[in-house]
Amino acid sequence: MTLLRVENLSRSFGGIKAIDDLSLTIRPGPIHSIIGPNGAGKTTLFNLISGIYKPGGGRIVLEDADITGHAIWRLAELGLARTFQNLQIFFNMSAIENVMVGMHLKSDSRFITSLFRTPGIVKGDQDKREEAIRLLEFVDLGDYLDADTDSMPYGALKRLEIARALATQPRIIMLDEPAAGLNPAETVAIDGLIQKISENGITVILVEHDMRLVMGVSEHIFVLEGGRMLAEGTVADIRNNPDVVAAYLGESGRDR
User: Fold this and answer.
1) pTM of the entire structure?
2) Strands of the sheet with 203-207, listed across from one edge
C-alpha cells in the first residue's frame, strides 16, 4: 500500500534545478529518512510536499488524491503536518497555547458561537486543553504546560514544535532537522520520540544530518544528490552502497 507518491517532481530556482525529475514512494508505517549533502534538495522537497513551494513539473499524490499545489491549510486537513529546521514557535504564547493553535482546524470558529462563548465552545476549549496536556506529556514536556516559551530550553522548543504538529492529528509528520543544534542527551530524547510517534501509527518522514540518529531509527532511506535520487533502501543497503559512501557518508559512515 502506498500512502504518498512523488512522481517526476521538478523545481528550479533561477535556472538551477533544486529538484530534478524526482520520484519516490512513502508507505504507511515505517520511518522514512531523506539524506544527502548540503544542496541536495532535501528541504526543497519538504517544501514542495507541504505546499510551501509549487512544483515546476510532476505531481504529489496522497493515497489516490492529487494534492499538487494544494494550500498548506488544505494539506493539514488531509493529515499532512511538518516541523521546520528553524524553529517556528509563537513566543508570545505559553507552551500549551502553542499546542492548542495546532487544533484550530478542528475548532468551531463560527462568529456568533465564539462571540457569546456558548456551552459548546466552552466544552470544546476544555477538551482542547486536555488534549494539549496529553500531547505535551507525550513529548515529555509535562513540566512546561504554562511556561513562557521564551524561557524554555532550545531542546524543549524542538519537542514543542513536534507536539503542535501532532495536534493537527496527522497521518504523516515531516520532521525537518529535529536534532539540529541539540546536545547528545537532547538528541537521544528526539530519537526516542520519533520512534514513539511511529509506534502510535503516524508515518514519519525525516530529514536529518545526524547519521547516528538516521541509521538508528530509519526503516527506509532515500539519498538525494543534486535534486535527484542517488539511492534508496534499508539502512544496510545505504551503508554498503558505494555511490552513497563516495558522495556522502564517507568511509566512517559505514560504522554509524
Assistant:
1) 0.88
2) 80-82, 172-176, 203-207, 31-35, 220-225, 228-233
